[in-house]
Amino acid sequence: MEIQQVPKIVDEILLDYLESRRAEISDIDPATALAFELLYEFIQGGKRVRPMFAWAGFVSGTSNEDPQAVLRAISALEFIQACALIHDDIIDSSETRRGKPTVHRAVETHHRKQGWNGDAAHYGKAVATLIGDLALTWADDMITSAGLSDAALQRALIPWRAMRTEVIAGQILDITVEASGDERVEEAEKINLYKTAAYTITRPLQLGAAIANASLEPFITYGQSIGVAYQLRDDMLGVFGNPAITGKPAGDDLREGKRTVLLATALKLLDASDPAAAATLRAGIGTPNIEGLADIIQASGAVEHVENLIQELTEKGLAALNDNLPNEVRETLQTLAKTATARHA
Q1: Which of 19, 95, 232, 293 has the fewest CB atoms within 10 Å, counting from its CB?
Q2: What is the mean pLDDT of residues 142-159?
Q3: Torsion angle of alpha carbons 76, 78, 82, 83, nearest 10°?
Q4: Taking the model in full, what pTM does it have?
């Protein structure tokens, strides 16, 4: 099976799985039925990047595992992704995701329309948090019931458990750096490594390889390098991206006060070259008034620096693909790397 077929197959598997769980939660109460429908709608979005990397890891080895069971197992990654995004939107107080209201805003709107008691915004965040928890729970249910052999499942759970821990740790670090105003580039880089690189590329690759009982080592440098480059590209889009493509308002990362490598680099460069501009950037980050901040970042030289870093990391990741990998796997990972790190807007 070609890697390009994976997203469509994963879509079908996810919807089938959701339908299999619908009754057990929707029949409890209209409130839980609404929660299910919101998760059902949310899970249908996304590029299925993580299952594609996981499939590439799987076909790097030779295995007798049922391919359909493997596809079900790696589809479970999308439930973890759903949990992470729903919770991330709550933490960042985001209004939109993929061009639609975020889950907590949708629940908040429902509360208001019903004329219920209490604070609608608090209710929205509370219910959305639990919807994210449900997604995480079902991720575990899905991989353990996918139909893998016992040996393959036990191997797969090693990177699976590490990935869950790392993405939560990365999120904690992200929140802490934002709250403390930490401007160190190395802290932003650490967030990228744990919140994005490991969870988006390295661990999914290792998950697939573990299922096939193939070596996990070839994917470490590739996964870390391409994963960090992927996040750097996302950070660029968070400031300069086209909302029609990103699904979020332009400059959303600046309003949310995201402490990215792009921002940390801009501040470091401006402290040396234009302290007044650095002060303006510091005062505006994390506030609704972000007018002109993107221009300041652009003028600082940080954009060129980050673009060069993306290029360097991409080249490093591609160079790490060793000759022992099957040609089709190497070619697939080369294509995925270029797609993940390309300019989209």
Answers
A1: 19
A2: 98
A3: 40
A4: 0.91
- Helix/strand/coil for 289: coil
Grouping H, G, I as helix, E, B as strand and the rest as coil, residue 226 is helix
- For residue 23, give both structure tokens: 């009754």
Query: Mean pLDDT lowest for which of 232-246, 268-282, 310-324?
Result: 232-246
What is residue 99's predicted lDDT score, i.e. its pLDDT?
85
Q: What angle do CA 302, 256, 281 make, to 5 degrees?
A: 40
How far apart are alpha carbons 295 and 42 in whole angstroms?
A: 34
* Model pLDDT for residues 183-228, shown as the tens digit of each residue: 999 999 999 999 889 999 999 999 999 999 998 887 899 999 999 9
Question: For every residue of 2-70, which 3-state class applies, written as one string?
Answer: CHHHHHHHHHHHHHHHHHHHHHHHHCCCHHHHHHHHHHHHHHCCCCCHHHHHHHHHHCCCCCCCCHHHH
| DSSP label of 200 | I
Angle in degrees, 0-180, between the axes of helices 49-58 and 203-211, rounded to the nearest 10: 40
168 Cβ partners below 8 Å, 6+ apart?
none
* Res 345: pLDDT: 45
Residue 96, beta-bridge partner list = 101
The CA distances from residue 262 to 93, 185, 256, in Å, are: 21, 9, 14
Contact between 5 and 69 under an 8 Å Cβ cutoff? The reply is no
CA 99, CA 248: separation in Å to the nearest integer?
A: 6
Mean pLDDT over 12-40 rounds to 98
Spell out where the chain has E strands. 96-97, 100-101
Give the single-character DSSP code of 193. I
256-296 pLDDT tens trace? 888 999 999 999 999 999 999 999 999 999 898 899 999 99
Categorise residue 119: left if φ over 0, alpha if ψ from -120 to 50, beta otherwise.
beta
Rounded-to-integer distance, Cα 267 and Cα 251, Å: 17
